[in-house]
Amino acid sequence: MAVITPLDKTAAPEQQRQQQTRRTVRPLVLGGLALVAGIAVWAVVAALGLVENLPTPAAVASKAGTMIADGTLASDTAASLRRVFIGYALGVVVAVPVGFLMGWYPAVRAVVEPYIQFFRTIPPLALIPLAVVLLGIGEVPKIAVIYLASFMACVVASFQGVVDVDKTLINAARVLGASDRVIFAKVVVPASTPFILVGMRIGLGASWATVVAAELIGAQEGLGYRMQKAATWFDMDAIFVSLITIGVLGLVMDRLLLLAERRLTGWQERR
Amino acid sequence: MNSKISFRDVVKTFPMKGATFTALGGVDLDIADREFVTVVGPSGCGKSTLMSMAAGLQEPDSGSVLVDGKPVSGPGPDRGVIFQQYALFPWLTVRQNVEFGLKLAAVPAEERRRRADAAIGLVGLGEFADALPKTLSGGMKQRCAIARAYAVDPQVLLMDEPFGALDALTRVQLQDQLLETWSQEKRTVLFITHDVDEAVYLANRVVVMAAGPGRIHRVIDVDLPYPRTEEIRLSPEFRRIRNEVWTSVYHQDEAASAA
Protein backbone atom coordinates (compact mmCIF):
# COMPACT_ATOMS: atom_id res chain seq x y z
CA MET A 1 0.00 0.00 0.00
CA ALA A 2 2.73 2.42 1.02
CA VAL A 3 4.43 1.80 -2.32
CA ILE A 4 1.31 2.20 -4.39
CA THR A 5 0.08 5.46 -2.90
CA PRO A 6 2.87 7.76 -4.20
CA LEU A 7 2.64 6.12 -7.60
CA ASP A 8 -1.06 6.91 -7.69
CA LYS A 9 -0.42 10.49 -6.78
CA THR A 10 1.91 11.07 -9.71
CA ALA A 11 -0.27 9.11 -12.06
CA ALA A 12 -3.41 11.09 -11.37
CA PRO A 13 -2.38 14.51 -12.77
CA GLU A 14 -0.61 12.81 -15.68
CA GLN A 15 -3.81 11.03 -16.55
CA GLN A 16 -5.78 14.23 -16.20
CA ARG A 17 -3.47 16.05 -18.58
CA GLN A 18 -3.79 13.26 -21.08
CA GLN A 19 -7.55 13.39 -20.84
CA GLN A 20 -7.50 17.12 -21.36
CA THR A 21 -5.35 16.96 -24.48
CA ARG A 22 -7.49 14.13 -25.75
CA ARG A 23 -10.58 16.24 -25.27
CA THR A 24 -9.19 19.15 -27.30
CA VAL A 25 -7.33 17.10 -29.92
CA ARG A 26 -10.08 14.61 -30.64
CA PRO A 27 -12.59 16.99 -32.28
CA LEU A 28 -9.77 18.42 -34.40
CA VAL A 29 -8.70 14.98 -35.55
CA LEU A 30 -12.29 13.94 -36.25
CA GLY A 31 -12.95 17.19 -38.09
CA GLY A 32 -9.84 16.69 -40.22
CA LEU A 33 -10.87 13.13 -40.98
CA ALA A 34 -14.35 14.28 -41.97
CA LEU A 35 -12.84 16.86 -44.31
CA VAL A 36 -10.55 14.32 -45.97
CA ALA A 37 -13.41 11.82 -46.27
CA GLY A 38 -15.68 14.45 -47.81
CA ILE A 39 -13.10 15.37 -50.44
CA ALA A 40 -12.49 11.68 -51.13
CA VAL A 41 -16.21 11.06 -51.70
CA TRP A 42 -16.35 14.12 -53.92
CA ALA A 43 -13.33 12.87 -55.92
CA VAL A 44 -14.86 9.42 -56.39
CA VAL A 45 -18.24 10.81 -57.42
CA ALA A 46 -16.57 13.18 -59.89
CA ALA A 47 -14.24 10.53 -61.29
CA LEU A 48 -17.10 8.07 -61.87
CA GLY A 49 -19.14 10.78 -63.52
CA LEU A 50 -22.12 10.10 -61.24
CA VAL A 51 -23.11 13.76 -61.32
CA GLU A 52 -22.97 15.41 -64.71
CA ASN A 53 -20.48 18.29 -65.04
CA LEU A 54 -19.23 17.93 -61.46
CA PRO A 55 -15.60 19.11 -61.45
CA THR A 56 -12.95 17.08 -59.68
CA PRO A 57 -11.30 18.43 -56.53
CA ALA A 58 -8.03 18.61 -58.42
CA ALA A 59 -9.53 20.75 -61.17
CA VAL A 60 -11.09 23.09 -58.59
CA ALA A 61 -7.79 23.31 -56.72
CA SER A 62 -5.85 24.19 -59.88
CA LYS A 63 -8.51 26.75 -60.81
CA ALA A 64 -8.14 28.22 -57.33
CA GLY A 65 -4.40 28.39 -57.99
CA THR A 66 -4.89 30.43 -61.18
CA MET A 67 -7.48 32.67 -59.52
CA ILE A 68 -5.11 33.33 -56.66
CA ALA A 69 -2.22 33.92 -59.06
CA ASP A 70 -4.06 36.43 -61.24
CA GLY A 71 -5.51 38.19 -58.23
CA THR A 72 -9.19 37.72 -59.04
CA LEU A 73 -9.88 35.64 -55.94
CA ALA A 74 -8.28 38.26 -53.71
CA SER A 75 -10.13 41.17 -55.29
CA ASP A 76 -13.44 39.28 -55.33
CA THR A 77 -13.03 38.29 -51.70
CA ALA A 78 -12.08 41.84 -50.73
CA ALA A 79 -15.11 43.26 -52.54
CA SER A 80 -17.55 40.83 -50.92
CA LEU A 81 -15.96 41.15 -47.49
CA ARG A 82 -16.13 44.91 -47.65
CA ARG A 83 -19.84 44.85 -48.48
CA VAL A 84 -20.59 42.35 -45.75
CA PHE A 85 -18.52 44.23 -43.20
CA ILE A 86 -20.03 47.63 -43.87
CA GLY A 87 -23.63 46.42 -44.18
CA TYR A 88 -23.38 44.03 -41.25
CA ALA A 89 -21.60 46.45 -38.92
CA LEU A 90 -24.08 49.23 -39.72
CA GLY A 91 -26.94 46.84 -39.10
CA VAL A 92 -25.61 45.76 -35.70
CA VAL A 93 -24.64 49.26 -34.61
CA VAL A 94 -28.11 50.61 -35.36
CA ALA A 95 -30.08 47.53 -34.27
CA VAL A 96 -28.69 47.19 -30.74
CA PRO A 97 -29.68 50.68 -29.51
CA VAL A 98 -33.03 50.48 -31.30
CA GLY A 99 -33.69 47.11 -29.69
CA PHE A 100 -32.70 48.49 -26.29
CA LEU A 101 -35.00 51.48 -26.68
CA MET A 102 -37.87 49.24 -27.74
CA GLY A 103 -37.34 46.97 -24.77
CA TRP A 104 -36.91 49.75 -22.25
CA TYR A 105 -39.58 52.26 -23.36
CA PRO A 106 -43.02 50.76 -24.06
CA ALA A 107 -43.90 53.84 -26.13
CA VAL A 108 -40.96 53.33 -28.49
CA ARG A 109 -41.87 49.69 -28.75
CA ALA A 110 -45.49 50.47 -29.61
CA VAL A 111 -44.41 52.81 -32.41
CA VAL A 112 -41.53 50.80 -33.89
CA GLU A 113 -42.54 47.19 -33.41
CA PRO A 114 -45.32 46.99 -36.04
CA TYR A 115 -42.90 48.24 -38.70
CA ILE A 116 -40.22 45.83 -37.67
CA GLN A 117 -42.57 42.88 -37.57
CA PHE A 118 -43.93 43.86 -40.99
CA PHE A 119 -40.57 44.29 -42.70
CA ARG A 120 -39.17 41.26 -40.99
CA THR A 121 -41.55 39.02 -42.92
CA ILE A 122 -40.17 40.30 -46.24
CA PRO A 123 -36.94 38.46 -47.07
CA PRO A 124 -34.17 41.00 -47.77
CA LEU A 125 -33.54 39.23 -51.06
CA ALA A 126 -37.01 40.20 -52.20
CA LEU A 127 -36.05 43.84 -51.72
CA ILE A 128 -33.16 43.65 -54.19
CA PRO A 129 -35.19 44.64 -57.25
CA LEU A 130 -36.67 47.54 -55.31
CA ALA A 131 -33.23 48.58 -54.07
CA VAL A 132 -31.90 48.61 -57.63
CA VAL A 133 -34.74 50.80 -58.86
CA LEU A 134 -34.45 53.19 -55.93
CA LEU A 135 -30.69 53.27 -55.39
CA GLY A 136 -29.16 52.27 -58.69
CA ILE A 137 -26.63 49.52 -59.29
CA GLY A 138 -23.64 50.85 -57.36
CA GLU A 139 -22.44 49.81 -53.92
CA VAL A 140 -25.26 51.55 -52.07
CA PRO A 141 -28.15 49.15 -52.86
CA LYS A 142 -26.00 46.09 -52.09
CA ILE A 143 -24.86 47.42 -48.74
CA ALA A 144 -28.38 48.64 -47.98
CA VAL A 145 -29.86 45.19 -48.47
CA ILE A 146 -27.15 43.56 -46.33
CA TYR A 147 -27.70 46.22 -43.71
CA LEU A 148 -31.42 45.44 -43.63
CA ALA A 149 -30.78 41.71 -43.29
CA SER A 150 -28.43 42.11 -40.33
CA PHE A 151 -30.52 44.85 -38.73
CA MET A 152 -33.66 42.71 -38.72
CA ALA A 153 -31.91 39.73 -37.16
CA CYS A 154 -30.20 41.85 -34.51
CA VAL A 155 -32.97 44.23 -33.52
CA VAL A 156 -35.39 41.50 -32.56
CA ALA A 157 -32.71 39.70 -30.55
CA SER A 158 -31.62 42.73 -28.54
CA PHE A 159 -35.22 43.81 -27.97
CA GLN A 160 -36.07 40.33 -26.75
CA GLY A 161 -32.97 40.38 -24.58
CA VAL A 162 -34.14 43.48 -22.75
CA VAL A 163 -37.70 42.21 -22.36
CA ASP A 164 -36.47 38.91 -20.96
CA VAL A 165 -34.20 40.39 -18.29
CA ASP A 166 -35.12 38.71 -15.02
CA LYS A 167 -37.38 41.08 -13.07
CA THR A 168 -35.87 40.02 -9.75
CA LEU A 169 -32.43 41.16 -10.95
CA ILE A 170 -33.87 44.59 -11.69
CA ASN A 171 -35.59 44.62 -8.29
CA ALA A 172 -32.39 43.49 -6.59
CA ALA A 173 -30.52 46.42 -8.13
CA ARG A 174 -33.35 48.80 -7.30
CA VAL A 175 -33.43 47.88 -3.60
CA LEU A 176 -29.68 48.40 -3.44
CA GLY A 177 -30.33 51.98 -4.52
CA ALA A 178 -29.81 51.82 -8.29
CA SER A 179 -31.38 54.49 -10.50
CA ASP A 180 -32.97 53.62 -13.84
CA ARG A 181 -29.83 54.69 -15.65
CA VAL A 182 -27.63 52.46 -13.50
CA ILE A 183 -30.06 49.55 -13.84
CA PHE A 184 -29.91 49.92 -17.59
CA ALA A 185 -26.12 50.07 -17.79
CA LYS A 186 -25.27 47.57 -15.06
CA VAL A 187 -28.10 45.07 -15.29
CA VAL A 188 -30.01 45.28 -18.56
CA VAL A 189 -27.01 45.56 -20.85
CA PRO A 190 -25.00 42.65 -19.43
CA ALA A 191 -28.10 40.50 -18.97
CA SER A 192 -29.11 40.89 -22.61
CA THR A 193 -25.63 40.36 -24.05
CA PRO A 194 -26.20 36.63 -24.72
CA PHE A 195 -29.31 37.45 -26.76
CA ILE A 196 -27.50 40.12 -28.74
CA LEU A 197 -24.65 37.79 -29.59
CA VAL A 198 -27.08 35.17 -30.86
CA GLY A 199 -28.73 37.88 -32.96
CA MET A 200 -25.31 38.90 -34.28
CA ARG A 201 -24.56 35.36 -35.40
CA ILE A 202 -27.90 35.03 -37.14
CA GLY A 203 -27.35 38.46 -38.71
CA LEU A 204 -23.95 37.39 -40.01
CA GLY A 205 -25.44 34.36 -41.74
CA ALA A 206 -28.15 36.55 -43.24
CA SER A 207 -25.53 39.03 -44.43
CA TRP A 208 -23.56 36.41 -46.30
CA ALA A 209 -26.71 34.99 -47.85
CA THR A 210 -27.65 38.46 -48.99
CA VAL A 211 -24.26 39.57 -50.36
CA VAL A 212 -24.16 36.78 -52.92
CA ALA A 213 -27.66 37.60 -54.16
CA ALA A 214 -26.90 41.31 -54.16
CA GLU A 215 -23.84 40.75 -56.31
CA LEU A 216 -25.90 38.97 -58.90
CA ILE A 217 -27.15 42.37 -59.95
CA GLY A 218 -24.78 44.75 -61.68
CA ALA A 219 -21.57 44.11 -59.75
CA GLN A 220 -18.11 44.42 -61.29
CA GLU A 221 -16.42 42.13 -58.80
CA GLY A 222 -17.23 39.97 -55.79
CA LEU A 223 -17.64 36.27 -55.12
CA GLY A 224 -21.32 36.26 -56.07
CA TYR A 225 -20.57 38.16 -59.28
CA ARG A 226 -17.80 35.70 -60.13
CA MET A 227 -20.18 32.77 -59.76
CA GLN A 228 -22.78 34.43 -61.96
CA LYS A 229 -20.20 35.15 -64.64
CA ALA A 230 -18.70 31.68 -64.38
CA ALA A 231 -22.15 30.17 -64.81
CA THR A 232 -22.66 31.97 -68.14
CA TRP A 233 -19.29 30.59 -69.32
CA PHE A 234 -20.15 27.19 -67.86
CA ASP A 235 -16.99 27.40 -65.76
CA MET A 236 -17.87 24.94 -63.00
CA ASP A 237 -14.39 25.11 -61.46
CA ALA A 238 -14.68 28.85 -60.84
CA ILE A 239 -18.16 28.42 -59.34
CA PHE A 240 -16.78 25.90 -56.90
CA VAL A 241 -13.84 28.10 -55.94
CA SER A 242 -16.20 30.99 -55.11
CA LEU A 243 -18.61 28.74 -53.24
CA ILE A 244 -15.90 27.23 -51.08
CA THR A 245 -14.42 30.66 -50.39
CA ILE A 246 -17.80 31.96 -49.20
CA GLY A 247 -18.25 28.92 -47.00
CA VAL A 248 -14.82 29.26 -45.43
CA LEU A 249 -15.18 33.00 -44.82
CA GLY A 250 -18.61 32.57 -43.25
CA LEU A 251 -17.35 29.78 -41.05
CA VAL A 252 -14.30 31.74 -39.87
CA MET A 253 -16.39 34.81 -39.02
CA ASP A 254 -18.95 32.69 -37.18
CA ARG A 255 -16.18 31.02 -35.15
CA LEU A 256 -14.80 34.44 -34.23
CA LEU A 257 -18.23 35.50 -32.97
CA LEU A 258 -18.58 32.24 -31.08
CA LEU A 259 -15.25 32.91 -29.42
CA ALA A 260 -16.42 36.38 -28.42
CA GLU A 261 -19.63 34.85 -27.11
CA ARG A 262 -17.72 32.40 -24.91
CA ARG A 263 -15.60 35.22 -23.60
CA LEU A 264 -18.45 37.60 -22.88
CA THR A 265 -21.13 35.24 -21.65
CA GLY A 266 -19.13 32.54 -19.88
CA TRP A 267 -21.01 33.46 -16.70
CA GLN A 268 -24.21 31.85 -17.97
CA GLU A 269 -25.49 28.75 -16.27
CA ARG A 270 -25.77 26.06 -18.90
CA ARG A 271 -28.32 23.33 -18.58
CA MET B 1 -44.31 55.27 18.99
CA ASN B 2 -40.97 53.68 18.55
CA SER B 3 -41.88 51.11 15.93
CA LYS B 4 -39.44 50.68 13.09
CA ILE B 5 -41.94 49.52 10.50
CA SER B 6 -45.66 50.30 10.63
CA PHE B 7 -48.45 49.16 8.36
CA ARG B 8 -51.55 51.33 8.81
CA ASP B 9 -54.80 49.96 7.38
CA VAL B 10 -52.95 48.86 4.24
CA VAL B 11 -55.13 47.80 1.31
CA LYS B 12 -53.74 46.41 -1.90
CA THR B 13 -55.73 45.03 -4.83
CA PHE B 14 -54.69 43.60 -8.17
CA PRO B 15 -56.82 43.50 -11.30
CA MET B 16 -57.53 39.91 -12.29
CA LYS B 17 -59.58 38.89 -15.34
CA GLY B 18 -62.13 41.65 -14.97
CA ALA B 19 -62.45 41.18 -11.23
CA THR B 20 -60.17 42.61 -8.56
CA PHE B 21 -58.15 40.40 -6.28
CA THR B 22 -57.75 41.81 -2.77
CA ALA B 23 -54.23 40.86 -1.75
CA LEU B 24 -54.43 42.83 1.47
CA GLY B 25 -57.67 44.07 2.95
CA GLY B 26 -56.69 46.49 5.69
CA VAL B 27 -53.58 45.31 7.50
CA ASP B 28 -52.25 46.91 10.68
CA LEU B 29 -48.89 45.80 12.00
CA ASP B 30 -46.13 47.39 14.04
CA ILE B 31 -42.62 46.03 14.18
CA ALA B 32 -40.30 47.32 16.87
CA ASP B 33 -36.69 48.31 16.33
CA ARG B 34 -34.40 45.25 16.27
CA GLU B 35 -37.32 42.90 16.37
CA PHE B 36 -37.33 39.68 14.38
CA VAL B 37 -40.82 39.14 12.98
CA THR B 38 -41.80 36.23 10.78
CA VAL B 39 -44.93 36.10 8.68
CA VAL B 40 -46.60 32.79 7.79
CA GLY B 41 -49.81 32.08 5.96
CA PRO B 42 -51.37 30.15 3.10
CA SER B 43 -50.56 31.19 -0.45
CA GLY B 44 -52.55 34.20 -1.58
CA CYS B 45 -52.64 35.75 1.90
CA GLY B 46 -50.57 38.68 0.67
CA LYS B 47 -47.49 38.06 2.81
CA SER B 48 -45.09 38.74 -0.06
CA THR B 49 -47.07 41.84 -1.01
CA LEU B 50 -46.62 43.07 2.54
CA MET B 51 -42.85 42.72 2.28
CA SER B 52 -42.67 44.20 -1.16
CA MET B 53 -44.48 47.32 0.03
CA ALA B 54 -42.05 47.72 2.91
CA ALA B 55 -39.27 47.40 0.33
CA GLY B 56 -40.88 50.13 -1.75
CA LEU B 57 -41.33 47.91 -4.79
CA GLN B 58 -45.12 48.24 -4.58
CA GLU B 59 -47.41 50.94 -3.25
CA PRO B 60 -50.56 50.44 -1.17
CA ASP B 61 -53.89 51.41 -2.72
CA SER B 62 -54.84 53.02 0.56
CA GLY B 63 -53.40 53.20 4.04
CA SER B 64 -49.71 53.76 4.63
CA VAL B 65 -46.44 51.95 5.16
CA LEU B 66 -44.03 53.78 7.45
CA VAL B 67 -40.38 53.09 8.15
CA ASP B 68 -38.96 55.18 10.99
CA GLY B 69 -42.23 57.08 10.99
CA LYS B 70 -41.79 58.23 7.38
CA PRO B 71 -43.95 56.94 4.54
CA VAL B 72 -42.09 54.59 2.21
CA SER B 73 -41.59 56.13 -1.21
CA GLY B 74 -39.63 53.68 -3.31
CA PRO B 75 -36.74 51.38 -2.48
CA GLY B 76 -33.74 52.58 -0.54
CA PRO B 77 -30.47 51.26 0.86
CA ASP B 78 -31.80 51.63 4.43
CA ARG B 79 -33.83 48.49 3.75
CA GLY B 80 -32.02 45.39 2.52
CA VAL B 81 -34.08 42.86 0.59
CA ILE B 82 -33.36 39.17 0.15
CA PHE B 83 -35.35 37.35 -2.51
CA GLN B 84 -36.26 33.69 -2.72
CA GLN B 85 -34.63 33.44 -6.17
CA TYR B 86 -31.27 34.74 -4.83
CA ALA B 87 -31.20 37.42 -7.57
CA LEU B 88 -27.42 37.47 -7.81
CA PHE B 89 -25.98 39.13 -10.89
CA PRO B 90 -24.63 36.07 -12.70
CA TRP B 91 -21.92 38.00 -14.59
CA LEU B 92 -20.36 39.29 -11.37
CA THR B 93 -18.23 37.34 -8.90
CA VAL B 94 -19.34 36.90 -5.29
CA ARG B 95 -17.25 39.90 -4.23
CA GLN B 96 -18.47 42.07 -7.11
CA ASN B 97 -22.05 41.16 -6.23
CA VAL B 98 -21.49 42.15 -2.62
CA GLU B 99 -19.77 45.38 -3.69
CA PHE B 100 -22.64 46.33 -6.02
CA GLY B 101 -24.62 48.27 -3.43
CA LEU B 102 -21.48 49.82 -1.96
CA LYS B 103 -20.47 51.12 -5.37
CA LEU B 104 -23.89 52.72 -5.75
CA ALA B 105 -23.39 54.37 -2.37
CA ALA B 106 -20.07 55.74 -3.72
CA VAL B 107 -18.03 54.03 -1.02
CA PRO B 108 -14.32 54.44 -1.85
CA ALA B 109 -12.67 51.35 -3.35
CA GLU B 110 -10.55 50.39 -0.35
CA GLU B 111 -13.35 50.60 2.18
CA ARG B 112 -15.66 48.90 -0.28
CA ARG B 113 -13.33 45.96 -0.51
CA ARG B 114 -12.94 45.80 3.26
CA ARG B 115 -16.67 45.91 3.93
CA ALA B 116 -17.43 43.41 1.18
CA ASP B 117 -14.86 40.98 2.51
CA ALA B 118 -16.23 41.39 6.03
CA ALA B 119 -19.75 40.58 4.83
CA ILE B 120 -18.50 37.63 2.78
CA GLY B 121 -16.62 36.35 5.82
CA LEU B 122 -19.71 36.77 7.97
CA VAL B 123 -21.63 34.31 5.78
CA GLY B 124 -18.63 32.00 5.42
CA LEU B 125 -17.97 32.46 1.72
CA GLY B 126 -14.39 33.72 2.07
CA GLU B 127 -12.96 30.99 -0.12
CA PHE B 128 -15.41 31.75 -2.90
CA ALA B 129 -15.05 35.54 -3.09
CA ASP B 130 -13.81 35.36 -6.69
CA ALA B 131 -16.21 32.65 -7.85
CA LEU B 132 -19.05 33.25 -10.28
CA PRO B 133 -22.57 32.44 -9.00
CA LYS B 134 -22.95 29.59 -11.49
CA THR B 135 -20.33 27.62 -9.57
CA LEU B 136 -22.14 27.99 -6.22
CA SER B 137 -24.80 25.76 -4.68
CA GLY B 138 -28.23 27.16 -3.85
CA GLY B 139 -27.32 27.65 -0.19
CA MET B 140 -24.09 29.43 -1.07
CA LYS B 141 -25.92 31.69 -3.51
CA GLN B 142 -28.38 32.69 -0.83
CA ARG B 143 -25.54 33.34 1.61
CA CYS B 144 -23.97 35.59 -1.01
CA ALA B 145 -27.29 37.43 -1.37
CA ILE B 146 -27.41 37.87 2.39
CA ALA B 147 -23.85 39.22 2.37
CA ARG B 148 -24.82 41.64 -0.39
CA ALA B 149 -27.71 42.95 1.70
CA TYR B 150 -25.58 43.15 4.87
CA ALA B 151 -22.70 44.97 3.19
CA VAL B 152 -24.67 48.21 2.72
CA ASP B 153 -25.52 48.04 6.44
CA PRO B 154 -29.30 48.44 6.25
CA GLN B 155 -31.32 48.98 9.41
CA VAL B 156 -34.09 46.76 8.15
CA LEU B 157 -33.82 43.37 6.51
CA LEU B 158 -36.75 42.22 4.42
CA MET B 159 -36.59 38.55 3.54
CA ASP B 160 -39.08 36.97 1.17
CA GLU B 161 -39.02 33.19 1.69
CA PRO B 162 -35.24 33.28 1.43
CA PHE B 163 -34.71 29.63 2.29
CA GLY B 164 -37.79 28.32 0.49
CA ALA B 165 -35.88 26.81 -2.42
CA LEU B 166 -33.26 25.06 -0.30
CA ASP B 167 -33.12 21.51 0.99
CA ALA B 168 -34.09 20.92 4.62
CA LEU B 169 -30.53 20.46 5.89
CA THR B 170 -29.15 23.59 4.25
CA ARG B 171 -32.20 25.50 5.44
CA VAL B 172 -31.53 24.67 9.09
CA GLN B 173 -27.87 25.64 8.70
CA LEU B 174 -28.77 28.97 7.16
CA GLN B 175 -31.37 29.65 9.86
CA ASP B 176 -28.70 29.20 12.54
CA GLN B 177 -26.27 31.34 10.61
CA LEU B 178 -28.86 34.05 10.09
CA LEU B 179 -29.64 34.14 13.82
CA GLU B 180 -25.96 34.28 14.61
CA THR B 181 -25.33 37.26 12.34
CA TRP B 182 -28.49 38.89 13.59
CA SER B 183 -27.40 38.56 17.21
CA GLN B 184 -24.00 40.05 16.33
CA GLU B 185 -25.45 43.03 14.50
CA LYS B 186 -29.07 43.43 15.44
CA ARG B 187 -31.40 44.75 12.81
CA THR B 188 -35.12 44.81 12.35
CA VAL B 189 -36.08 41.75 10.35
CA LEU B 190 -39.31 41.05 8.51
CA PHE B 191 -39.09 37.48 7.35
CA ILE B 192 -41.71 35.86 5.11
CA THR B 193 -41.96 32.07 5.11
CA HIS B 194 -44.37 29.21 4.54
CA ASP B 195 -42.51 26.97 6.97
CA VAL B 196 -44.07 26.98 10.46
CA ASP B 197 -40.96 25.55 12.17
CA GLU B 198 -38.79 28.19 10.58
CA ALA B 199 -41.20 30.94 11.57
CA VAL B 200 -41.16 29.91 15.24
CA TYR B 201 -37.45 29.12 15.42
CA LEU B 202 -36.34 32.51 14.16
CA ALA B 203 -38.82 35.00 15.54
CA ASN B 204 -39.67 37.16 18.51
CA ARG B 205 -43.15 37.23 17.07
CA VAL B 206 -44.97 35.18 14.46
CA VAL B 207 -47.62 36.91 12.39
CA VAL B 208 -50.14 34.42 10.99
CA MET B 209 -52.04 35.67 7.97
CA ALA B 210 -55.25 34.49 6.34
CA ALA B 211 -56.29 34.66 2.71
CA GLY B 212 -59.31 36.03 0.85
CA PRO B 213 -58.89 38.92 1.52
CA GLY B 214 -55.34 38.91 2.88
CA ARG B 215 -55.36 39.91 6.51
CA ILE B 216 -53.65 39.27 9.83
CA HIS B 217 -55.23 36.28 11.52
CA ARG B 218 -53.21 36.11 14.72
CA VAL B 219 -49.98 37.36 16.20
CA ILE B 220 -48.20 34.84 18.41
CA ASP B 221 -45.33 35.79 20.73
CA VAL B 222 -42.40 33.41 20.88
CA ASP B 223 -41.11 33.55 24.44
CA LEU B 224 -37.98 31.54 23.79
CA PRO B 225 -34.54 32.88 24.65
CA TYR B 226 -31.78 33.60 22.13
CA PRO B 227 -29.43 32.10 21.13
CA ARG B 228 -31.77 29.50 19.78
CA THR B 229 -30.24 26.08 19.75
CA GLU B 230 -31.10 22.56 18.77
CA GLU B 231 -32.10 22.03 22.38
CA ILE B 232 -34.69 24.76 22.06
CA ARG B 233 -35.84 23.37 18.74
CA LEU B 234 -36.55 20.05 20.48
CA SER B 235 -38.02 21.53 23.68
CA PRO B 236 -41.68 21.03 24.66
CA GLU B 237 -42.12 24.80 24.82
CA PHE B 238 -41.02 25.12 21.19
CA ARG B 239 -43.41 22.34 20.26
CA ARG B 240 -46.28 24.02 22.04
CA ILE B 241 -45.77 27.32 20.19
CA ARG B 242 -45.19 25.49 16.95
CA ASN B 243 -48.49 23.63 17.36
CA GLU B 244 -50.27 26.84 18.15
CA VAL B 245 -48.92 28.49 15.01
CA TRP B 246 -49.63 25.37 12.98
CA THR B 247 -53.24 25.29 14.10
CA SER B 248 -53.80 28.93 13.35
CA VAL B 249 -52.25 28.53 9.88
CA TYR B 250 -53.94 25.32 8.81
CA HIS B 251 -57.21 25.36 10.74
CA GLN B 252 -58.22 28.98 10.38
CA ASP B 253 -61.87 28.25 9.61
CA GLU B 254 -62.44 26.01 12.63
CA ALA B 255 -60.78 28.53 14.89
CA ALA B 256 -63.00 31.25 13.47
CA SER B 257 -66.22 29.26 13.87
CA ALA B 258 -65.24 28.12 17.37
CA ALA B 259 -64.64 31.71 18.45
TrEMBL record, chain A:
- TM segment ranges: 28-51, 85-106, 118-137, 143-163, 183-204, 238-260
Keyword Transmembrane helix belongs to the record: yes
| InterPro entries in the record | MetI-like, MetI-like_sf
Please state the protein's primary subcellular location.
membrane
Q: Where in the cell is it found?
A: Cell membrane
Q: Which UniProt keywords apply?
A: Cell membrane, Membrane, Transmembrane, Transmembrane helix, Transport
Record region (Disordered): 1-20
Membrane association type: Multi-pass membrane protein
Task: Please report the organism this UniProt entry assigns to the protein.
Answer: Streptomyces ureilyticus
Entries under CDD domains matching the protein:
TM_PBP2
Its family remark reads: Belongs to the binding-protein-dependent transport system permease family.
Name-wise, this protein is ABC transporter permease
Superkingdom of origin organism:
Bacteria
TrEMBL record, chain B:
Say yes or no: keyword ATP-binding present. Answer: yes
Q: Which residues form the ABC transporter domain?
A: 5-236
Q: Species name for this entry?
A: Streptomyces ureilyticus
- Name residues in a coiled coil: none
Does this entry carry the keyword Lipid metabolism? Answer: no
Q: What GO molecular function terms would the record report?
A: ATP binding
Its recorded name reads ABC transporter ATP-binding protein
Which UniProt keywords are given for this protein, alphabetically ordered?
ATP-binding, Nucleotide-binding, Transport
